[in-house]
UniProtKB/TrEMBL annotation:
InterPro entries: DEP_dom, RGS1/SST2-like_Fungal-DR, WH-like_DNA-bd_sf, WH_DNA-bd_sf. GO terms for biological process: intracellular signal transduction. SMART domains: DEP. Residues 227-245 have a biased composition (Polar residues). It holds the Pfam family DEP. It comes from Fusarium phyllophilum. Transmembrane segments: none annotated. This is Regulator of G protein signaling.
């Protein structure tokens, strides 16, 4: 899509078609990556995590539809069938910022804290959504007894990993575990029980194990962060006008935009705000 040379107010849309071929193994591996990224799921109710070439029926997930929607929007494409799939979208998808050179998710403290607040839910302690999942945040178990001791605001490692895979743009379990590991690293959650068998099998999972055996509780720092985030989001609407007026005196809109684009945390929040408005 580009400006029309003969009509400055119009645009010219050109379409290019690229054809390529791949062998069966490459196609199977690509489809398996779609499954791992939660772009497609089994349509017959089977909890299959392995793509089957024969006898399987697959459908796009809410996450897969949103990824396709973003692709069409960013490339100026319109697909009639896309509007028919919008009814299958179950909630928002958190777009994770990535390093332009390595394509790895940013896991600096500010970015990780934003993801963590979305995981818990803006109202704090998972007051939204069912117990195991939900785009509004997971629901923490108020009390859980482990080895005779009572812990508050807990959930399993599996619940955290599943939410990240379903509701963010991480593409596999490895990326979800990496993000959750930084939740522990930044003292947002604390380990209650460790899945030793899983940890011994996967040496990189010492801090976080994505299993139903591993249990984590909300730390005091994590609780304070969520409550602060919730109150700041509620009061942000009233502060927008005054802050914008002051910003116009101190710095130009271009300078503010450059600052946002250079900071992965600000980019994440800016992108999220654009979709909401």
């Amino acid at each position: 899509r580009m400006p029309d040379p003969s009509n400055p107010s119009g645009t010219v849309v050109s379409t290019s078609t690229t054809t390529f071929s791949m062998n069966k193994n490459t196609a199977r591996n690509l489809c398996q990556q779609f499954v791992d990224a939660r772009y497609i799921e089994s349509a017959d109710g089977k909890p299959d995590q392995v793509f089957q070439q024969r006898g399987g029926v697959w459908r796009p997930t809410s996450k897969g539809i949103m990824i396709f929607d973003w692709f069409c929007q960013s490339n100026g494409l319109y697909q009639d069938q896309l509007s028919e799939l919008h009814c299958l979208i179950t909630g928002p998808l958190l777009h994770l910022e990535r390093d332009v050179k390595t394509d790895k998710c940013h896991v600096d403290r500010p970015t990780t804290e934003v993801v963590f607040c979305r995981l818990i839910g803006v109202d704090g302690r998972g007051k939204k959504g069912p117990y195991s999942e939900g785009a509004a945040g997971i629901r923490l178990q108020p009390e859980r007894k482990v080895n005779g001791k009572t812990y508050h605001d807990t959930c399993t490692g599996q619940v955290i990993a599943e939410w990240l895979r379903d509701n963010t743009t991480c593409v596999d379990l490895r990326e979800a575990v990496n993000i959750a590991t930084h939740f522990v690293h930044y003292n947002l959650i604390e380990s209650v029980t460790t899945d030793m068998a899983y940890m011994n099998q996967f040496a990189a999972c010492k801090l976080f194990q994505p299993t139903p055996i591993a249990i984590y509780q909300l730390s005091q720092r994590g609780q304070d962060l969520v409550e602060t985030s919730s109150s700041s989001r509620c009061s942000s609407q009233g502060k927008t006008d005054s802050s914008s007026a002051k910003g116009g005196v101190n710095e130009s809109n271009r300078h503010k935009l450059e600052k946002i684009l250079l900071d992965p945390t600000l980019r994440l929040l800016f992108r999220e705000n654009l979709r909401e408005t």
